[in-house]
Each structure stands twice: as C-alpha cells, then as structure tokens.
Amino acid sequence: MSGAGASSGVKRKRRNTRAQAAAQEQPDAPVLREIKYRDVGVPHGQSDRLVESLLLRFTVGSYEYMKFEAIKKVKLLEFKRIDWDLVNRLGQVERIQELLGEKFRWALEWLYSAEEVGSDEFRGLLRQVVRDPAEACVLKEDLARFWRTIAISPYSSNLVASDIRDPVYRFVHKVNQHSLFCLMCMVERRPANLASILAWSVARPKKGGGTARLYGGPYITMLAANLGVFTDFPAERMTEGPAPSLVELRSLQLARIVTFIEPLAWTEILSAPPSPDPTAEEAAHTTIPERYQVPLQRHQLPAREYPFRQPRPEPLTLEGLYNRVEQVRHEMHLGFQALYDHFHIQAPPVWQPQQGGPAGGEEEPAGAQQGGAGDA
After folding, report:
1. Of 52, 60, 67, whose CA–CA distance to 36 is shortest?
2. Which residues, including other chains, have CB under 8 Å from residue 164's CB and lie 6 or more apart?
3. Is pLDDT at 31 greater than 60 in this prediction?
4. Cα(116)–Cα(121) distance, integer angstroms
5. Contact between 101 and 192 (Cβ < 8 Å)
6. What mean pLDDT comes out for the span 187-205?
7. Distances (CA, A) of 272 to 67, 153, 169, 172, 365
C-alpha cells in the first residue's frame, strides 16, 4: 500500500520511551541565585576599607550592588534589651520566658548548629509571611486570623499596639507584620526559623530616606565576627553604632503596658470585642436589591418648590435716617406719657403738647416755644 493513497492518511504520533517519560516527570532543579563580582578587589590585609573587600565588589547594576548601595550608609537602630529586673518587679517572669522560648531568649548567644541546619526539622521551620502559598511560610490570612484573637480592632495595614488586649503581648511585640509573625509563632507554639527572621530584619531598613535605620546591630556584629571581618578590617576603624540599652519604663507606660501609679503593675487586660451577630449580617444581605433601580430622567423627577426670596431692604439715606430718629423719639414720648398716666404723676411742662406741632405728628414742648419767644 504505497503511493498517494498511503501518504494521505493521518500519521501516528511516536510514543516516548520509558527513559524519556521518566525524565519528563522529574521536577526541575531549583534555580540558585548567582552572585557576580566586577573584580577581585584589594587582597586581604592590604586595605583597611571594608568597601574594597572582595565580598562587596558586586557587579555594577546587579541586585546585590543596588542593595549594597542602598544600605551601606544607613545607620543602625538602637537595640533594646529586656530589663529583667523591671519584669521581676512587675511579675510574670516565667510566663514571658515561656512565651519567648529558648531560641528567642538566647538568640544573641547562638542560633543553630551545623547538625540542626542539616536536619529535616530545620527545613520545615516557618520562615516568613508571604502573599502566595509557599513552602514553610504563612499567609497574611493567618496573621489576620491570629490578630482577631488577641486584639480589639480588625486587621489592617495600620496596626496599633494599644489594640492588643494582653499587656504582656504588647511588651514583646512591635506592631508590624514581621514582629506579629514572631508573636504568632510564640503564642501558638509554632516553630519558627530564627535565622530567616533575623536575615529578613537586617535586609529591610526601618522607614526610609534620611531617617532610615537598620535592625539588629548586635546580630550584624556577630555575623561579621564569625566571618572574620574584624581580622583584616579592625573594628576601631569603622563607624560605631549606638550601644544596646534596656527598655525604658517611661516608654512602657506611654504604651499602656505598665501603670503610672505605684506600685508598678501590668495594665488590665482589655475586654474582647463582641462577636458579630450572624442574623444582622443576614438581614443586611437581604436588604440588598437583586436588581438595580433604573434611574429616572430629568423630566420624570417631581417639580421642586423653591421659597420666595425676601424683599431687598430699602437703601439707607439721610431722609430715611431722619424719619427713623423722629419715629423713635415719638415712641419714647408715648412711652413716658403712659408711665405718667399709670402712676398718676403730673408731667413736666416740657412734655405738654402744644397746638401746631411739627409735621411729624409730635407736639413741641411749651417751654421750648416760650424759650424761643423770650429770646426773640
């Protein structure tokens, strides 16, 4: 069956071999980030400038270069330590130590050993908060759920520490997404990768611009010491950051964590917000119309009734002012005359009306006319 008839049929697709099918089923190897350097830099021991080190000579325009240029001039944020003597005065030392756990309490001394890093348990530790599902990470929905259990306000991008109900939670927490993730791991006893948390904190400056500061100065110093940076670059030739200090009592009082009145104590736990009524939510949904109302045209709207404008006042002139003064004088004369009649008092001669008064209707007093005649 050769010829045109055979060639006009549909060709069958050739099946893959077992080796090809197995190769297609295997997942792709993870893509590792490659760091490139523009030169070899200055050999160790020949320069005391840290920026000339081989580890920092990134290729111009790369992600590492841009990141280094952004943070190399940023100052360190003052590191705060827990004042355990103050906590002992307030009480609940055991609760705070249990809440922090061994890893968070001894983070400055040691993190993980080589055996711990190579274990399967270390790979499953929670690393950070992400938007999309990822391995060993939590979503923002988890933070929102946890926030509703400890706070009196709904979860949003502008969280306030004073909304946390328990003052002990406010003591170990600074309101941002990163520290809220740490607090969630502490309260819910979920193992967290402290190395990933510290790396994220160091890589992300606080605020921006001229007021930007880097977190974790002691951790940066510890990493530099372990990497042998101070061997070739003495620490006394570098810019020293602020020394770590204890958490001040005044800051705890302003944050409504500790009371102002002696004896010092933790503030009261705020009451939980009332649970939403499911019937009210259902009633709100039932009031929503299924169809939108068709808007009316202008000629279909009811006629509007506008109030009449008040008449404009007469303009002020000299003649009008004179008439107003004469009217007031006449009203005063009538008022005094009524008082004299009521108390049966004889009116003085100046109030006696005379014949042929002014055209305004008020009679001139007799004394005034007599005085004028005598003068004449």
Report:
1. 60
2. 150, 151, 170, 173, 270
3. yes
4. 8
5. no
6. 82
7. 43, 10, 15, 20, 86
